[in-house]
Every structure is written in C-alpha cells, then in structure tokens.
Design goal:
This protein starts with a helix and ends with a helix. About 45% of the residues lie in helices and about 0% in strands. The chain has one domain. The chain contains 4 helices and no strands. The protein binds iron/sulfur cluster (SF4). Iron/sulfur cluster (SF4) binds next to helix 2.
Length: about 70
C-alpha cells in the first residue's frame, strides 16, 4: 500500500508542525498508543493546542463538549 503522507498532511489538525510523525497516521497512532495517549487530531482545536494527549484529558474535554 502506498503511503499517503502528503495527502494526510493536508488534513492533519495537529499543531506540532515539527513532529516527525506528522502526516504518518500509522506512526502517530502507534506512538501515542504506546504512551497511553490519543493523537492530537481527536481533540477539539482549543484542547489540541495544549498538547496534552492523555486519555484522562481527552475524556475531560469531550465530556464537556456540547457539540457531541
Ligand atoms: S499527534 Fe503526536 S505524533 Fe501525531 S503529529 Fe501530533 S505530535 Fe506528532
């Protein structure tokens, strides 16, 4: 399967623009899963910018999200 990094970069909402995993969703997911975290693109923009990728923070943010 062909890598879609260039295509993924067009839609990546992560603000960590210097991250080596940016645009490589498989590596991004693996990195955060191994750290017990969730990738930045799962967070609303206002929370993503804080770079706290913990599951605890994700649940906290999403439980307060009125758009769900
Ligand atoms: S979510 Fe994490 S691994 Fe993925 S691009 Fe952002 S900083 Fe890198």
């Amino acid at each position: 399967m062909e890598c879609k990094r260039d295509e993924n970069l067009l839609e990546c909402t992560c603000s960590a623009t210097t991250c080596k995993n940016r645009g490589m969703c498989c590596e991004c997911v693996r990195h955060h899963r191994e750290a017990g975290e969730i990738p930045g693109c799962f967070f609303p923009k206002s929370a993503e910018i804080k770079h706290n990728r913990s599951i605890k923070y994700f649940i906290e943010v999403m439980s307060k999200n009125k758009d769900l």
